[in-house]
Amino acid sequence: MSALSLAKILLVSSCVFFQTVVMGQTVNINCGPNGCNSALPDQTAYNYVAKISSFGNCSTGDFCKFKWEVTNGTITQTNSSTYEGDGYIAIDVKWHNVNGNGIIKVTTAKPASTDDKCETCPVGLTVTKTIPIKYLGTPGNIKINGVAYTGSHQFSCGTAPITVSVTPATNATNYAWTCPAGWVKSGSGASITLTPTKNTGGTIKVVASRGDVLNLETVSQLTITRPLPTKPVINSGDILLCNPKTITASAINASSYNWVTTGGITANSGNTNTAQITGVSSGTVKVSATSAVCGVTSAFSNTINVKRSAPLAAALLVTENGGGSPDFMCNGSGVSLHAETAEPGTIFSSWVSSDPANTILNFNGGSAYFNSYVNSCYGVTVVASNCFGSVQKGITICVDNCIKPTPTPDIYPNPASDYIDIALDERDSVEIPERIKIVSEVGSRELKSVNVVTDGMLRLNVSDLPRGVYQVLFIYRNIESKNARIVLE
């Protein structure tokens, strides 16, 4: 054979091999069991190995460089369609479910290493294998009596048999059907007959497969709904029934409505979704919906309370400053009061103090402001009313002083020379001074002054003051000043 490259085409077991030959050398692809005859698109990984013939160097060619290319499949080593590198003699391939062939191509090249005469590796040897893929198509959309539907479909509540079918899937030999609970199936293949159970729905599903490929399946399914009535929703909250009131309910698939009342309440509706509510005493109202087509009645709506009486004192709640029950207030601090009730139609008309002369009470509806500068306990009453009458809710608020103690801070060392430490208690428990002054005891001349910005320990430098006797003055915001005597030596 000459040194010129020759092209060969070999036909083996229905697979097509395209191969180049260089100086008597070829590259071949060896397959795992059955991997060259056909492949299953079921995520099985098939192993393929390249081998250079008539080449003894570079570990008989195993350390040469190989470039793999795959069509209609994925190389697991790279999760892509290509794989290239020195010594890459083998790949694993998962074939796609395509209606066609898988193709593998490998090409040789020189590696980076020169060990074992690897620089003599043949360049450009190539071989291509074509491998038939056992493809399985997907069934078409499920058809009901010849009409295809996607996702879901609603049909009447009857029990008349229906024809259910799909467009056959390519290469499928088996069709496994499942249907909603209670439905009866007859027939097989791509078209069957189903007899529904009255008023029930669910999922119709078909799984296509081919007999020569285990676990390779494709699916089509359709959700079936029936026109059952939904739970009604009434367009009203609880009602204060001063006069007859019309309310409405809404439900899907309802042909009539059943209104039910308790107590002294009556609902006049004529089985429609609109009812006029009248009554002689308090009670409740609710409604269910019925589908005449399906002969099914829904669950009842949420119950609506209907009130025909004056407000209940026990249902009233008065809170202070957004939460809690008011019972104490610091003198002059003022509190915001809020009255509320869950009963419908209640109006808060007025607030009254037991001692108007010594209290301030401003109000607007259910909100009020109370204050007093005289220590005592006061009654505050709020009046709640509706069209049937009124009721009062009384609370007691006691007013007292809330002034913190003002102990004279400790000073040490005393006598002192360079500095003095002034111990200020915590601001939350006592009043602390706003300003501290050091004044000469003779002549009362101010020699040093500092603003107090925090509690705790305060150190003052006194090394610059003449030796002698001084007064330390503690200045407070709203109370008299205090003083202490120190000696500087």
From TrEMBL:
It comes from the Bacteria. The keyword Ribosomal protein does not apply. It holds the Pfam family PKD_6. Coiled coil: none annotated. Keywords: Signal. The lineage of its organism: Bacteria, Pseudomonadati, Bacteroidota, Cytophagia, Cytophagales. InterPro entries: PKD_6 (IPR045829), Secre_tail (IPR026444). Residues 411-476 form the Secretion system C-terminal sorting domain. Residues 1-18 form the signal peptide. The keyword Methyltransferase does not apply. This is Por secretion system C-terminal sorting domain-containing protein. Residues 149-209 form the PKD-like domain.
